[in-house]
Fold this sequence. Notes:
The longest helix has 16 residues, at 155-170. This protein is α+β, with helices and mostly antiparallel strands. It starts with a helix and ends with a strand. The strands form 5 sheets. The chain has a 6-stranded mixed β-sheet with strand order 4-1-6-5-8-9, with helices on both faces. It has helices spanning 3-13, 21-27, 70-82, 125-129, 149-152, 155-170, 187-190, 292-297, 305-318; strands spanning 32-41, 46-51, 54-58, 61-63, 91-97, 113-123, 138-144, 175-178, 181-182, 205-207, 216-224, 230-235, 241-242, 251-262, 265-274, 276-277, 285-290, 330-331, 337-338. The protein is globular and about 75 Å long.
Amino acid sequence: MSQMSQQTDEAQARPGTWMTPAAYGASRAAVWTAAVVLVTDIDGRVLVQSVDYRADRLLPGGAVDAGESPSAAAAREMWEELGVEGDYRRGLAVDWIPADTPGFPPEMRFPGEILHVYDGGTWTPERIDSVRLPAQEVTGIHFAEPADLPALMDAGDARRALSALRARVNGSGTALLEDGRPTAPTALDRLGVLRTRRIPQRGPWHPGPVPAHLPVRDRSGWLFAPDGRVLILVARATGAVHLPPLTSAPTTGAAPLGYRYGDQGAHVRTAARLGSLPPAADPAYARLLATAEQVRELSDWGPAGAQELAAVHTARTRLALPAPTRTPPTELPESGTRW
Length: 339
């Protein structure tokens, strides 16, 4: 009796759902595997590359070779495409790309794909200058404002990159995606944060109160909750992130933090402790609590953002508040809250 006949007889003799190894193997879905790396510069822009075989931009990375782990493939692709050595172990997202995704020619017989997105970190100008492009395939790199990714990339690639970037800001581990969309959306995902261009406030940082002779364009507050996180406003229509005005809620311990000065006046910052949060005055804005680092990552403040962040930490210490752990920003109820 042949081995196949013996397995068939065994399958018929066994009750339930038992399958022969051959039948079980044939029943499993086969998919491709790929790995890409998400890199930002110190201004929070995303590295995308131009290639000689398609018009839209891509995150660096590519197919996982037979017998290769996804993280090893990410490191290999970064070396082959950009001449940069690295170890990419921190996953930002794992995406399931369905077999019926548009854009794949029928003769390719695309079976679907599992794509891993790794965190390539924030690159300094010196590291960016170390990039060495190959003789073919990659024709250039560009750092793009997150909101510009849908115009530069394939729609699915852009969704995936933005979801991975939000996962990095959230800091809660790898996001699971299906066709670029999170299966468990966070507040940043639900509100579409980073889908519109961040408002640049790139003037130099000046500590302390604004001089009386300078015109003031706006006043906003670093308003601390008891756990050390701060209040931010997110426009529901655009996903734009703002620090709130000092009048958003009752506060204590208010003190001038500093200001930025640009062509249209000073952007003044005040630090204070939140006493409570009244009912929302404007339903067009969601109210979230986030760490100071997350606020900076969702803003376009230029190199001086590090100086403002340092001033915020000093103010938090002065207010005797703890250093918060990075967790996904929490949306607060419209009805308000008491600590």
